Amino acid sequence: MVNMMIDGKKVSAPKGTMLLESIRGAGIAVPTLCAHEAISRSGACRLCVVEIKKGNRTRIVTSCLYGVEEGLIVDTKSERVLNVRRLVMELLLARCPESDVLQKMARDMGVEPQPRYAVDTDKGKCILCRSCVRVCEEVVGVSAIGLFSRGSYKEVGTPYNEKSDVCIGCGACVYVCPTGHIEMISTGDKRKIWGRTFKMQACSKCGKFFAPVDQLKFISKKTGTSMEELSVCTECR
Amino acid sequence: MTKPISVAAKTRQIVKKHGGGKSAMIAVLQDIQEAFNYLPKEALKTAAKAMNVPMSRVYEAATFYTAFSLKPRGKHIVKICKGTACHVRGAAILQDRFETTLGIKPGQTTADGNFSLETVNCVGACALGPVVVINADYHGQVTINKVDKIIKKINEEGAQS
Q: What is the three-class DSSP state of B103?
């Protein structure tokens, strides 16, 4: 265990854990977009910044990626922290003006769209946090999507923007996306995602369409469970 | 020339040389580009499978580095340096000249497949500026007159061989 001071409170945390958990554990709110319990951390959204003090020096770090340290003095609401956070929010807002999640966050933080930033109109709601790419690789295990090109051209998608032959239509990327950029339309026996239409499996008991056939096939292959068993939805099982 | 070899077979050969896995990816992509002058889709898909790396990771790397081209390129690749020193010494005028003479913009290839035009940020030969690199040859202190001479010379060499 290591001992720290967070906003004047004494906090101890197990070694190897991240600052964000300790801060939230102490009941202090920190805004985040890209930190998700299901995937590894990347520090992409930059909203979780805090100020740390070691000896005489202070530094701004992303709390989601900063490991806890003995004797650390953390300030989550200093003027410097709030300034950085506001700037990050202004930039995110300029990139994705149509995102309702960002708009609400900005309102809560008292941030308004800044006329000095040219507003992007072609980026959708994507903040390039890579959460969807990581969930597809780490949790689903198919790596159907990626972030392609670089700089201002960088965008999320499937290789060559083609229908992916490895995607199983599970929708984990949609679930994990903090801003709702990825579009998935489920209508009856069909689900459309990443430009591909998947056939949905109807539950053999209640008849409800509950998962793409390709996803069930993938699970069946990976776990050895028979397709018959998987054709029953989770509610009927 | 040895007998023609399919894109997939050549790619597998390249991957075999470097060994599979993620760490060899850049080297593999460089060799594929050297073999075909660009990165064909078929080669990337074959390489991804042979290296046991997801296609999305391969495509990420291929689109990230400007040194890789996903479009077929010409026999001769003209790179105009647009670094600060070359810019000050008139790279823009040179680019204009290349564009009008070859009839293409940067990133494009002539219809006969002879020339591709590209702009690069700095080739590290600022004292020679403005610099134009054609294939592996560096041309320093290039003027508008020199542009025509260089293109003429390459065309003549091409006609001979």
A: coil
At the second CATH level, the architecture of A2-109 is: Roll (3.10)
Q: Are the Cβ atoms of B56 and A150 closer than 8 angstroms?
A: no
Map tokens 């998962």 to a residue. Answer: A211
Of the residues A143, A161, A168, the best mutation for testing chain B's interface (the one with the most B CB atoms within 10 Å of its CB) is A143
List, in order, residues 6 or more apart from B38 with CB less than 8 Å away. B69, B70, B71, B72, B73
Q: Residue B77: beta bridge partners?
A: B116
Q: How many CA atoms lie within 13 A of A211 on its CB side?
A: 20
Per residue in B24-55, pLDDT (tens digit) is: 999 999 999 989 989 999 999 999 999 999 99
What ipTM goes with this model?
A: 0.88
Nearest to B154 by CA among B131, B136, B129: B136
Locate B97 and state its tokens: 């000249």
Are A208 and A202 a contacting pair, CB within 8 Å? yes
DSSP A136: I
Which helix (H) or strand (E) is A59 found in, with range?
strand A57-62
Domains and their CATH numbers in chain B: 7-64 (no CATH), 76-160 (3.40.30.10)
**CB neighbour burial string for A7-32, b if at least 16 within 10 angstroms, e if fewer:** beeebebeeeebbbebbeebebebeb
Read off the pTM: 0.86
Residues of A whose CB is below 8 A from B52: none
User: Could you report the per-residue pLDDT of A181-207, keeping only the tens digit for each?
Assistant: 999 999 989 999 999 999 999 999 999
Q: Which residues of B touch A167 (CB under 8 A)?
A: none
- In CATH terms, the fold of domain A131-230 is Alpha-Beta Plaits (3.30.70)
Q: How far is A144 from chain B (nearest CA, A)?
A: 6
